[in-house]
Amino acid sequence: MAVSSSVEPDVSRVAPKPGRDRPPNPYFRNLSSKFATVPMILTVLVVFVGGSIWTVVFSFTNARSFPTGEFIGWDQYERLFRTKRWAISVRNMAVFGSLTLVFNFVVGFLLAVFIDQKIRFEGVFRTIFLYPFALSFIVTGNVWAWIMNPAFGLQKAMRDLGWESFSFDWITNKDMVVYALVIAAIWQGTGLIMALMLAGLRGIDEEIWKASRVDGIPKWRTYISIVLPMMRPVLITTLVIAASGIVRTYDLVVALTQGGPGLFSEVPAKYVYDFMFGGNLAQGLAASSVMLLTVGVILIPWAIVEFSQRDKNK
Amino acid sequence: MTDFTANKMIAGVAGMSSERRAMPSGPVGTKPKRLFEPSRVFIYTVLVVAASFYLFPLYVMIITSFKDLEAIRFGSLFVPSNAPTIEPWIKAWDYACTGLNCEGIKVGFWNSIKITVPSVIVSISVASVTGYALANWPYKGANIFFTILLVGSFIPYQVMLYPLVLITAFLNIFSTLWAVIMIHTIFGMPILVLLFRNYFISVPTELFKAARVDGAGFWRIFFQVLMPMSLPIFVVAIILQVTGIWNDFLFGVIFAGTKNFPITVQLNNIVNSAQGVNEYNVDMAATILTGAVPLTIYFISGKLFVRGIAAGAVKG
């Protein structure tokens, strides 16, 4: 991903027309290339930058169904932080997000390490661990909703087998429903972490392993003290990717719990959607502005480190 | 050539650049040890237990979809029906209800195809040309846009949803296929441009220079020199986009319009339509039908899929 380019096209080849001494206008240099990148520039300027600014600006209005209305200052934000549903959403996101991240990383890393032990059927195991990632969150949510169905799912099956006290009613239990989301998210997401970690592990120089073997360092110690620190760039990139995916969580909740029971599995992205298209536009915009701010807080330090290092490597 | 590129892409994601960073394309080094050493037994036990966790939902989905309602009510979640029936599949495909409409998931299936095919074509066309321009014809400032594009791909979609509703409404395409195609092109751009740009940069510059000397211009080099030799990366991009667009729910539900709801939305509506008894067998058959396309692509493409997500990791 080096930013430097390999080819500097020679535009001076285009000779000025006879009778004209003026050099070609620099704005028309490389015109095809500029033309070809118009969609990208529009996406960046209009959608990413313009859209974000628009959302933040209109979050200060009292727009309801349509983006009209007057500016009312911080009112939407005050309402937002007074709303119980938003508080629940944020708390759920914190619990769901941190648990999913920790589990995905620990499980994903362990699976990658186990797969890296020169095992047989490696391809089979990799395929099995990764296939849920190919599925839609809607599919994942439906399957787990069925498995966790208290009346017909795992709970009933275990009780039928004779374990009378077995209880697995998480999707209808207000205290446990967040963990139901975590299970489904782990099932779907560990494969990705495993694949990225495995790529990182395979990138570790064989010499490192030889050296640690010569020094008599146990294998687990080598993994924790040498290999993991060496994989720092992979870890950080994977963390940013996983975290920004988790913040967006929407489909999974819609399919698995629909936010219920009550409001106990609501998440911020669903709050935004429900208000934005439910006749309280500015409130949804305020909530999404808060999401933007949160992602920015995660992202900007990473981006600065990542891109400044890259420039150094140039 | 292609392996080298894959390495570069992984290395790019990892922020490293050594050529040794290979794809997990298979174990390297000494041969596998004997199967029955204590440490080996432990490793395989852990892997098999983990694998059964990942396979369990697939197993449950499949056996449930072949049960009748009796078997669901009185049988066990783990045990396949002893009188399997294909009826839930037929109902799921052909006449399961979403509210008042009883047309099954087939409507969503064809809609998803109508959405996916043009979206994949448009997004890959736009992104490949952009990546080519950035890699081979950079102009001053181009990389600034590219950097913003990459960072911007982490912005939650919710932030840009309403502005996009307004933009598509302004263009008079809201609630049409065109709107979804446009949205998928926009949000597929960061990862695809990254993918193509990194690929084209890895192509030896001599090829490009030779074509220039021979008088080929921007488009001609792209279509006649680079594109024919870039088939693998186009395949990776297609896999990435087909699975991503097929699995999309949010954009479909907002931009496609009720007539064009993709299969994920249709599935959600079927499962949540509260008409009479819940037919879990039909739900599961519909769920499998929804997952079938990306799963098939995943199982066929194998390593290419992994390559796509490893490069696509930046998008998340």
Describe the structure in your own words.
Chain A has a domain at about 85-280: MetI-like fold (Orthogonal Bundle), CATH 1.10.3720. Chain A is about 65% helix and about 0% strand. Chain A has helices at about 30-35, 40-60, 75-80, 85-115, 120-130, 135-145, 155-160, 175-200, 205-215, 220-230, 230-245, 250-255, 270-275, 280-314. In chain A, helix 3 crosses helix 14, helix 4 (about 85-115) packs antiparallel against helix 11 (about 230-245) and helix 6 crosses helix 8 (about 175-200). The longest helix of chain A has about 35 residues, at about 280-315. Chain A is flat and about 65 Å long. The relative contact order of chain A is 0.13. By secondary structure, chain B is mainly alpha-helical. Chain B folds into two domains: about 40-85, no CATH class; about 110-310, MetI-like fold (Orthogonal Bundle), CATH 1.10.3720. Chain B is built from 15 helices and no strands. Chains A and B meet through helix 1, helix 2, helix 4, helix 5 and helix 6 of A and helix 1, helix 2, helix 5, helix 6 and helix 7 of B.
How far apart lie the N and C ends of chain A? 10 Å
Number of strands of chain B: 0
CATH class of the domain at 84-278 in chain A: Mainly Alpha
pLDDT < 50 runs, ≥5 residues of chain A: 1-13
Low-confidence stretches of chain B at least 5 residues in length (pLDDT < 50)?
Answer: 1-22
Structural class of chain A: mainly alpha
The overall strand count of chain A is: 0
Order of helices and strands of chain B: HHHHHHHHHHHHHHH
Protein traits:
heterodimer; A: 314 residues; mainly alpha; MetI-like fold; 14 helices; disordered N terminus; B: 316 residues; 2 domains; 15 helices; 70% helix; flat
Give a concise summary.
By secondary structure, chain A is mainly α. Chain A is 65% helix and 0% strand.
